[in-house]
Design a protein that fits this description.
Blueprint: E1 3-4, H1 23-30, E2 34-38, E3 41-44, H2 46-65, E4 69-70, E5 76-78, H3 79-85, H4 87-90, E6 96-99, E7 105-108, H5 113-123, E8 132-141, E9 156-166, H6 175-193, E10 198-201, E11 212-218, E12 224-228, E13 234-236, E14 258-261, H7 268-279, E15 289-295, E16 300-306, H8 313-320, E17 325-326, H9 329-334, E18 353-357, E19 368-370, E20 376-379, H10 383-392, H11 399-404, H12 413-416, E21 422-424, E22 446-460, H13 462-466, E23 471-472, E24 478-479, E25 482-489, H14 490-499, E26 501-503, E27 509-511, E28 513-514, E29 517-518, E30 529-533, H15 541-555, E31 560-563, H16 569-579, E32 583-587, H17 589-592, E33 598-603, E34 613-616, H18 620-628
Helix pairs in contact: 1-14, 2-6, 2-14
The structure holds adenosine-5'-triphosphate and magnesium ion (MG).
């Protein structure tokens, strides 16, 4: 039985509310798919829910095909579990926490690693029970700092989260094998949903190597930056490496080191405004050095990047081969760092402070940086004169060797005979125009924006270790399983489909929306077909033809909504375009009373031209299924 518009609930709106900034948010509201309840929480109306359920059905089929079994875990999670992994703290403010009437403390699950690890740990006893992959489709809660863009970043959302448990990384039944299977399942899921996607390398975490990928839908409104080259390398901005960026200290200082009082101007932007207003000098961020004070387990570390670049902590950690955190401001001040006014030369004379400099910041030229005293900066900072010379004494010849030397086991500070350790390394986020790494095919990196819809990750034993999960091994020893986790943002797929913009295989520009509304991929449209009745009366010929067509199209495997509202045709056409049904069939007295009765077919993606096609009623089902297949 086809559904009738008058029986469902489709409150379309002419205008989107003012706080809807991006197309998917505006259109999902306007098309009557969702309604907002509060910040970051949305009701799904019938049409939105149908699309959501279609996505869910595809995910279930592919998870099943990949050998994962479905479970359903609680949202309410005892905080003790989170304490065991330390994530009650490290997850930060995104973790919703509540107390019950007895004073017990809970987290509202933003993800389920803790719960699933304990669950599977309690169900498997031997390595013979492994591997095991479980998944669920369940509501997650995250107290996002800025819920926005409708269901793209909400505080309550549906996630498909899968978790796998293994005896080992490699070989049959190993994590690597399952990771590849999940990766392939994700490719099928997004392909079947009809959303364009890119697979990008993401921050690897504990296992290292190629242990994390994100599935991104290309869209100018995406919050993630993806860098690619012509050889198919794609990585997110946190992960993307750059090819060799040479540094150069061959030039002469641009002037005497000069202290400039900059009262109350700690930030780059403040200093630039100050220079312009007070000194009449146009200073660019690219001529400033940003010196960030960091903590390592053994001391301090100054990370120096150009003023217009962003420090990448993960890169810094891997170059320094130790844990590095941005320092607590109070502690750093107590240790003598003039936070807000720190320059690289703060390390000179300090045995407890290492310095890592990005190659773009290690140049001769005009530099402004912190003066290492409150409310002051310096002009004409010169690396050789103001940084290395004091530390190296007269050994300037060694400079190049020192710079190239990475901090490592054999090359500690003593060996280099420095008061501090300095090195030059790629520690900033990659940007468009950077050289791509040679081992990834070289060339130049290009930046595009994307929406993260899925993420696969090799976790290692982080959770099984901290929750003390182990199984008996081959020789009756106890072994700690390793894990992978695999997430998909279910609601986000809908919004991403609408936001998507890409060039298809034939070179045509495609988008999930246009000026009239949503252009759904057929697989996840609320209905594949909308039959628009011009003047519906229950016992009219128009109604008979609509029902008849609907039945035949449904029998062919496509779902149909009949727009039987008592509205002007123009209103109905506009609404059909707004909701974005892939095919609209218009049935009216005028067409039916022609010598050869006719109806009109219009594909939402433009394949039937802007006016649609008049088709003989007797051929309508055939042509409709042709357009839909
Ligand atoms: P993001 O970087 O966008 O905050 P994340 O990396 O924290 O996401 P994961 O923990 O990897 O997210 O969660 C798995 C998937 O859940 C993501 O790939 C994304 O599609 C979806 N997701 C995450 N946060 C939200 C949110 N606030 N609203 C809707 N979907 C979300
Ligand atoms: Mg992620």
């Amino acid at each position: 039985m086809p559904d009738l518009w008058t029986q469902t609930l489709v409150p379309t709106l002419r205008e989107a509310p003012g706080d809807a900034e991006v197309p998917s948010h505006q259109l999902m509201l306007r098309a009557g798919l969702i309604r907002k309840l509060g910040a970051g929480s949305y009701t799904y109306l019938p049409l939105g829910l149908r699309s959501l359920n279609k996505v869910i059905a595809i995910i279930r089929e592919e998870m099943h095909a990949a050998g994962a079994c479905e479970v359903f875990m609680p949202t309410l999670q005892p905080i003790e579990l989170w304490q065991k992994t330390g994530r009650d703290e490290s997850y930060g403010y995104n973790l919703f926490q509540i107390d019950d009437r007895h004073g017990r403390h809970y987290a509202l699950g933003p993800t389920h690693e803790e719960v699933v690890t304990e669950l599977v740990g309690s169900c498997v006893n031997s390595y013979k029970d492994l591997p095991k992959t479980v998944y669920q489709i369940q509501t997650k809660f995250r107290d996002e700092f800025r819920p926005r863009f409708g269901v793209l970043r909400s505080r309550e959302f549906l996630m498909k989260d899968a978790y796998s448990f293994h005896r080992a990384l490699e070989g049959p039944g190993g994590l690597d094998e399952e990771y590849d299977q999940q990766y392939a399942a994700y490719e099928r899921i997004f392909t079947r949903c009809g959303v364009p996607f890119m697979i990008v390398e993401a921050e690897a975490g504990p296992i290292g190597g190629n242990a994390s990928h994100e599935f991104m839908v290309p869209s100018p409104t995406g919050e993630d930056t993806i860098l690619t080259n012509d050889s198919g390398y794609a990585a997110n901005v946190e992960k993307c490496e750059t090819g060799e960026r040479p540094y150069d200290l061959s030039g002469e200082p641009t002037g005497e080191l000069e202290v400039v009082e900059t009262p109350g101007c700690p930030g780059i932007d403040d200093v630039i405004v100050f220079f312009k207003k007070q000194l009449g000098t146009k200073l660019k961020p690219a001529n400033m050095l940003k010196t960030l004070v960091c903590r390592t387990p053994t001391g301090w570390l100054l990370a120096v990047v150009r003023g217009d670049h962003e420090l990448n902590l993960a890169k810094l950690r891997s170059e320094a081969e130790t844990d590095v955190q941005l320092a607590d401001e109070k502690e750093a001040r107590a240790a003598g760092f003039k936070i807000g006014f720190v320059g690289p030369h703060a390390a000179v004379g300090r045995k407890d402070t290492a310095v890592v400099v990005d190659p773009d910041a290690m140049r001769t030229g005009f530099w402004v940086t912190g003066a290492n005293k409150a409310d002051a900066h310096v002009k004409h900072f010169d690396w050789k004169r103001d940084f290395f010379q004091p530390g190296l004494g007269k050994e300037m010849a060694k400079l190049d060797a020192v710079l190239k030397q990475k901090q490592g086991a054999q090359a500690g500070p003593q060996k280099l005979n420095l008061a501090f350790t300095a090195m030059v390394a790629d520690i900033r986020n990659a940007i468009e125009g950077d050289p791509a790494p040679d081992e990834k095919g070289g060339g130049t990196l290009r930046a595009t924006k994307g929406i993260e819809v899925g993420h696969v990750f090799k976790l290692g034993d982080k959770y099984t270790q901290s929750l003390d999960v182990n199984v008996s091994g081959e020789s009756n020893d106890r072994v700690t399983p390793i894990m992978g986790c695999y997430g998909i943002g279910v609601n986000r797929i809908l919004a991403a489909a609408i936001e998507s913009e890409h060039t298809d295989a034939d070179g045509n520009a495609r988008a999930g929306h246009d000026e009239f509304g949503i252009v759904w991929p057929q697989a996840i449209a609320p209905y594949a077909v909308c039959i628009t009745a011009i003047k519906w009366e229950d016992d009219s010929q128009v109604a008979d033809v609509c029902r008849n067509l609907a039945k035949q199209i449904e029998d062919a495997g496509y779902d149909v909504l009949i727009d039987n509202r008592d509205e002007r045709p123009g209103v109905k056409f506009k609404d059909a375009d707004l909701v974005g049904f892939p095919l609209r069939i218009t049935v009216g007295d005028k067409g039916l009373s022609a010598d050869t009765p006719q109806v009109e077919l219009k594909a939402r993606d433009g394949r039937t031209g802007p006016k649609g096609e008049a088709v003989d009623l007797s051929k309508a089902v055939e042509r409709a299924t042709e357009l839909l297949s």
